[in-house]
Automatic annotation (TrEMBL), chain A:
Native source species: Nitrospirillum amazonense
InterPro entries on file: AAA+_ATPase, ABC_transporter-like_ATP-bd, ABC_transporter-like_CS, FeS-cluster_ATPase_SufC, P-loop_NTPase
Domain of life, source organism: Bacteria
Record PANTHER family: ABC TRANSPORTER I FAMILY MEMBER 6, CHLOROPLASTIC
Keyword field: ATP-binding, Nucleotide-binding
Limits of the ABC transporter domain: 2-246
GO terms, molecular function: ATP binding; ATP hydrolysis activity
A matching Pfam family: ABC_tran
Family: Belongs to the ABC transporter superfamily. Ycf16 family.
Protein's UniProt name: Fe-S cluster assembly ATP-binding protein
Automatic annotation (TrEMBL), chain B:
BP terms from Gene Ontology: iron-sulfur cluster assembly
Family stated for the protein in its record: Belongs to the iron-sulfur cluster assembly SufBD family.
Organism: Nitrospirillum amazonense
All copies of domain SUF system FeS cluster assembly SufBD core, residue ranges: 184-417
Stretches assigned to the SUF system FeS cluster assembly SufBD N-terminal domain: 5-182
Name of the featured protein: Iron-regulated ABC transporter permease protein SufD
NCBIfam families: sufD
Family matches, as InterPro entries: Fe-S_cluster_assembly_SufBD, SUF_FeS_clus_asmbl_SufBD_core, SUF_FeS_clus_asmbl_SufBD_sf, SUF_FeS_clus_asmbl_SufD, SufBD_N
Highest taxon in the source lineage: Bacteria
């Protein structure tokens, strides 16, 4: 599914990722944990193709294709989805217009017929209902006036609509209370399938009690310094990240 | 602009052939206009109100009447096709065959100015004089005033060739169910027209007017429009103008409106055409409780220039004004926003609000914004704001991360930016039409048609 080899990346000339190696197979859920400033969000932006994140070395292969050669929208259309740490508010663009445009762009890329307004509406209503989102939320401007939890649910709704084969959840738990976290986790879990892989990026173990990973990796100062099973998350929760050293050691 | 000597020839040649020539009233109006033009001339950038819009480079614009293309088989824009009272002008000349006034309720008249003059020059002159003229010096500022905002010379030019235009009168208490449309179609390669548009809405009446300026093959034409609006006590006038001429066209318009007690004047101006287009709106709130909404949206690209200049004059107490103007500027396009609010000493309890926002899509795009408040009353609520910015990079990335191609994402964000202005329009027909025209223009600007075909949610 996804193969990251010796990935180095800089932001504003400063090297943040210093040789990441990671293989994710279909259906697997991997968690990346690490202290603040370890490069977790940089990794998610590099994988989704954000401007300003420059890859200086290494490769990322997604379903046999060179992911790094693709534009952001092409990656999304190929099946890469980034659930944002801070979903963006877009005044004046309704959720429905946004999602219909996105869905039909992705469908077009896949060679599928575009959905008409009625087909789209039927689909979004069904998906929104499963996330406990009402009509009002789906017709409002994208994330405008949404609470933190509503914004995250809106991101998961987008994921449910676009049905990506690989999803990156970037600090999805940040800013959520326990009820909102459960709701979002339930949404994510319902999207787990043997064909869909996920990369869950988080600082805390808490989220991983709800979205249980197959593999856990520790990212510290630009490198994966340890990998293990789901029990590694519990160990980190108990011991903290201290043993993984300081930036100077990396 | 053609030399004044040429204009003199033109004036002397054309005057005897204009409708109503020889009738005292009209002869005097035209002579006054011509004299005013000679006195004031074409505004230069030394005039405060024209500091940012330079007409000097327009040398060579033909002031001769346009020669229309013979073919009138073009589509005529409409906010509600088949359901409006419509006057059509081709290259500034009234075209009865293309017009469709339909049945008007008692108390309502809708005439071409030419028709009115031909049937009774005296009545026409009387009607023409009933309307307010733009004021040369509208500010109260003490001391030398360089004469801000006046379009005196252009109004004079319009008066010198007074012949064409539209006159709408709505009698007391009448509500006109269907919108009135005044459509100007440019088909000529060049040439000028100077229409006068007059709207008189009597007390308690209500009407919607859509004004279109479009090109159907037209080129470097010059429209020099003067509008007069009177809104009587408690009356409501909703007025939208859609300026969508050819990229080579020159469009200069001034509208002067007076609003009586408890009356409402809503005006919206869409400016998407012309190499240079300026609309100068002056609204005087003359009676207690009068209100106005002035809104505008523009899109300029290439090396085009759009100017929206307004003056909202709070003369009486308890009046409200709200102005929202937004535009998108690309390439070497340039936009001008000048908005002045005057609150006169008697205009206590004034509520005035003004907002101007510009979206710059290129490094060479330019906006000159000049908001002005002149307040002489002490118990008032007034605010204004002006911003200029670029597309939100975060929002662009968010849209692209969902699979939306970059150019479509940009088009969506531009549409969202401008749609906020369309929301200012109270009338549903006008609003829907404005939104559609904005989408169409963005489509031509970006090459992307934004798909907003999503049915309204709810049962």
């Amino acid at each position: 599914m996804l193969e990251i080899r010796n990935l180095h990346a800089t932001v504003d000339g400063k090297e943040i990722l210093k040789g990441i190696n990671l293989t994710i197979n279909p259906g697997e859920v991997h968690a990346i944990m690490g202290p603040n400033g370890s490069g977790k969000s940089t990794l998610s932006y590099v994988l989704s193709g954000r401007d300003g994140y420059e890859v200086t070395e290494g490769s990322v292969t997604f379903q046999g294709k060179d992911l790094l050669a693709m534009e952001t929208e092409e990656r999304a259309a190929e099946g890469v989805f980034l659930a944002f740490q801070y979903p963006v508010e877009i005044p004046g663009v309704s959720n429905t217009t946004f999602l219909k445009t996105a869905l039909n762009a992705v469908r077009k890329h896949k060679g599928l017929p575009e959905l008409d307004a009625m087909q789209f509406l039927k689909l979004i209503r069904a998906k929104a209902k499963a996330l406990n989102m009402n009509d009002d939320m789906i017709k409002r401007a994208v994330n405008v006036g949404f609470s933190g939890g509503e914004k995250k649910r809106n991101d998961i709704l987008q994921m449910a609509m676009l049905e990506p084969s690989f999803a990156i959840l970037d600090e999805t738990d940040s800013g959520l209370d326990i009820d909102a976290l459960k709701l979002v986790a339930d949404g994510v879990n319902s999207l787990r399938s043997p064909e869909r892989s996920m990369l869950v990026i988080t600082h805390y173990q808490r989220l991983l009690s709800y979205i249980v990973p197959d593999h856990v990796h520790v990212l510290a100062y630009g490198k994966i310094v340890r990998s293990g099973g789901k029990e590694l998350a519990l160990e980190l929760e108990a011991k903290g990240y201290a043993e993984f050293g300081s930036p100077e050691a990396a | 602009m053609a030399a004044i000597a040429t204009l003199k020839d033109l004036y002397e040649t054309l005057s005897p052939g204009l409708p109503g020539a020889g009738a005292a009233g009209l002869d005097r109006l035209r002579a006054d206009g011509y004299a005013r033009f000679l006195a004031d001339g074409i505004p230069t950038t030394k005039v405060e109100g024209w500091k940012y819009t330079n007409l000097r480079d327009l040398a060579g614009v033909s002031l001769a009447p346009a020669q229309s293309a013979a073919n009138t088989d073009f589509d005529i824009p409409s906010v509600a096709p088949g359901k409006t009272h419509r006057l059509v002008f081709v290259d500034g000349v009234f075209n009865a065959a293309l017009s469709a006034v339909g049945t008007l309720p008692p108390g309502v008249t809708l005439d071409s100015l030419r028709g009115l003059i031909e049937s009774s020059p005296a009545t026409a002159a009387e009607v023409l004089e009933r309307f307010p003229a733009p004021k040369a010096d509208t500010g109260l500022r003490v001391g030398p005033n360089p004469g801000r905002g006046q379009s005196g010379g252009l109004v004079g030019l319009n008066g010198a060739f007074l012949a064409e235009g539209a006159v709408l009168t709505v009698g007391e208490g009448v509500t006109l169910a269907q919108p009135v449309e005044i459509v100007f179609v440019a088909t000529a390669a060049d040439g000028a027209w100077h229409p006068r548009l007059l709207i008189d809405v009597a007390a308690g009446a209500e009407v919607t007017v859509a004004e279109h300026h479009v090109a159907r093959g037209g080129g470097a034409t010059f429209a020099n429009i003067v509008g007069g609006v009177r809104v009587g006590e408690g009356a409501i006038l909703r007025h939208a103008k859609f300026q969508e001429e050819d990229d080579a066209a020159l469009h200069l318009a001034s509208v002067t409106a007076t609003v009586a007690a408890s009356a409402t004047y809503e005006t919206f101006v869409l400016t998407t055409g012309g190499r240079l287009a300026r609309t100068d709106v002056q609204v005087r709130l003359e009676g207690s409780g009068a209100s106005t909404r002035v809104s505008g949206a523009y899109g300029v690209d290439g090396s085009r220039h759009a100017d929206f200049t307004s003056l909202i004059d709070h003369v009486a107490a308890n009046c409200t004004s709200r102005e929202v103007v937004k535009g998108v500027i690309d390439g070497k396009g340039r936009a001008v926003f000048q908005g002045k609010i005057i609150v006169r000493p008697d205009a206590q309890k004034t509520d005035g609000h003004q907002l101007n926002r510009a979206l710059l899509l290129s490094d060479t795009a330019e906006i000159d914004a000049k908001p002005e408040l002149e307040i002489y009353a002490d118990d008032v609520k007034c605010s204004h704001g002006a911003t200029a910015g670029e597309l939100d990079e975060e929002a662009l990335f968010y849209l692209r991360a969902r699979g939306i191609p970059a150019d479509t994402a940009r088009a969506l964000l531009i549409a969202a930016f401008l749609d906020e202005v369309a929301e200012e329009i109270g009338d549903a027909h006008l609003r829907a039409y404005a939104t559609a025209r904005i989408q169409d223009r963005i489509g031509r600007l970006t090459g992307i048609t934004v798909d907003t075909d999503v049915p309204v949610l709810g049962e």
